[in-house]
């Protein structure tokens, strides 16, 4: 039995959930999201919560049970509170700034990197060395943060580059004479 899948997903106040077949739609203060679930699981709404159950006792159905429940939970959380990911920039002359709907990064290359902000994502730069990515879709927020981090990943010798706020960089010792 799935420890994750057996827990129902509570629907907070202000969020409307509509289930039609294998599709679930959630609408909240931050927007609306929809998700098509795999056919191995069934989905129902009971007592102000969404319940996900496997259709049969196959191995694949049990694997998809916890996954589907987590996807539904992310859907509900996304339209009610949203998701965010914080990035830090370390390095002399490295900085980020917003110009309209474009994130401009100066990362030690001979040119500036211009990253157009995708639809459904909001990016903030509270100062020149921090970036905060906001959005309702957890997968999209993580993907945008990973793309930005990929422009200059942290190197282990001087820890220069872009890293996640909670990332730990293991430093290496340099050359010895």
UniProtKB/TrEMBL annotation:
* Top-level taxonomic group: Bacteria
- What is any Pfam family matched here? Ribosomal_L6
- Which molecular-function annotations from GO does this UniProt entry contain? rRNA binding; structural constituent of ribosome
Which Gene Ontology terms of cellular component type are present?
A: cytosolic large ribosomal subunit
Keywords from the UniProt entry = Ribonucleoprotein, Ribosomal protein, RNA-binding, rRNA-binding
Residue ranges occupied by any Large ribosomal subunit protein uL6 alpha-beta domain in the UniProt entry: 11-82, 91-164
Q: Name one GO biological process term.
A: cytoplasmic translation
Q: Which NCBIfam families does the annotation name?
A: L6_bact (TIGR03654)
Task: Give the multimer and partner information.
Answer: Part of the 50S ribosomal subunit.
Annotated family: Belongs to the universal ribosomal protein uL6 family.
Q: What does this protein do?
A: This protein binds to the 23S rRNA, and is important in its secondary structure. It is located near the subunit interface in the base of the L7/L12 stalk, and near the tRNA binding site of the peptidyltransferase center.
Name used for this protein in its record: Large ribosomal subunit protein uL6
Protein's gene:
rplF
